[in-house]
Amino acid sequence: MKISDMIRQALEKKGFKNLKDASKVLGISPELLRVTINKGHIPKDKTLIMIANKLGLDKSVLILSAHQEKVPAEVKGFFLSPSTTKYRRGKRKYPLSEEQINYLEKILSIEEIMMLRKYRQVSEEAKTQINGYVDFMFASKRSA
User: Staple 57 to which of 26, 52, 130, 140, CB 3.0 to 4.6 Å?
Assistant: First the structure.
């Protein structure tokens, strides 16, 4: 979702009818708010944090969305999309988050993702052994 849509929806939830009143509450100029919402201008991170605090938005999601909008279209697929879900404390059920898996599915097979999950669970000593085995197999395949 674009930051202009996120801000517009938050303003509607708060009951603001015009941009002038909203800009006073947010502590920014009406012109900056207008170009952000209507023209897709992306304000500085400091301004986005102020807006997020006043509207009750997640700061990290708003800033990540803004940075993702700035990236050229040909490389957007390489970046993870920000998630609005709240972070849970404690150990995750899987070593990779759902967001990471969705991204990895674009570039890896399911078997490779499962192998990556298992790799992240082993000890440092086991990782050294696995890396050595993979290097050995790769070198022997290349020489054959």
Answer: 52
